Amino acid sequence: MRIAILSDIHGNLTALEAVLADLRRTSPDLILHGGDLPHGGSRPVEIVDRIRELGWQGVLGNTDEMLFAPESLEDFAARQSHELQPLFGVIREMAAWTREALGDERLAWLRSLPRVQIHAPVALVHASPETTWRAPLAAASDADLESTYARLGQPVAVYGHIHQPYIRGLTGLTVVNSGSVSLSYDGDSRASYLLLDESTPEIRRVEYDLDAEIDSLLACGLPHADWVARMLMRGGFEMP
Asked: Strand ranges (DSSP E) for the chain?
């Protein structure tokens, strides 16, 4: 069985459509999403509607959660350093815009997403089994990865959240980060997704029209769109 997993679309319809074109070529048997669907891009409504139309199963992401439960962002922000607080102010403003655009019915659909999907031999979470907000980084030790994901009980554990794709083989467990469809943080601005052929993982990178997406972003009215545009262009995170 061939399984594709897409995570962290972040409202970027241009990137999603390019990945969909690649999926038509790779023809997986099952496609799952790893959450973080509408927030942080120019077309949140279109992303949610497209995923629902496609009928993909998936999991809840942290930015999905903060849209219907703003207190989840506040709880996370309260545990972070003083230097990061301006970042959370920006995220609040962006989330308010996205929340208003989506409306109650789409927010209710986001609320219905589970936190774990099991499709043997794969277990999928957005960040970790316990929370959508915290996950091991790409440089985490084997012991950290095993202690976080072995409890899912499948030989392949997949997550998103950190926007840096990688594949790590452990004893009896393969941990994979699918990367992000939008807002890559590994220096490569292309979209990223995971293709599993049986239990063999492959990270696929897909080019998309970055200029067109940035034009859409700057015209859509999203607060701090210029900040998002800079990160899209550089393929990396920066403070607003």
From this structure: 2-6, 30-33, 57-58, 117-119, 122-124, 156-159, 166-170, 173-177, 191-197, 200-206
Q: Reduce the DSSP state of residue 109 to 3 states and report it.
A: helix
25 CB-near residues (< 8 Å, 6+ apart):
none
Pairing of strands 122-124, 117-119: antiparallel
CA distance 140 to 52: 34
| φ/ψ of residue 220, rounded to 5 | -85, -20
pTM: predicted TM-score of the whole model, two decimal places? 0.97
pLDDT over 90 (residue 198): no
Q: Between the CA of residue 94 and those of 51, 58, 89, 111, 160, what are the distances in Å?
A: 21, 23, 9, 19, 21
pLDDT tens digits, 38-80: 999 999 999 999 999 999 999 999 999 999 999 999 999 999 9
Note the pLDDT tens digit of each residue in 211-224: 999 999 999 999 99
Give the residue-averaged pLDDT of 231-237: 98
Q: Which SS3 state, helix, strand or coil, does residue 29 take?
A: coil
Indicate the pLDDT class of residue 199, thresholds 50, 70 and 90.
confident
Domain 2-117+183-234 falls in which CATH fold? Purple Acid Phosphatase; chain A, domain 2 (3.60.21)
Per-domain residue ranges of the chain: 2-117+183-234
Q: Which two tokens stand for residue 197?
A: 């052929």
CA–CA separation, 220 vs 212, rounded Å?
12
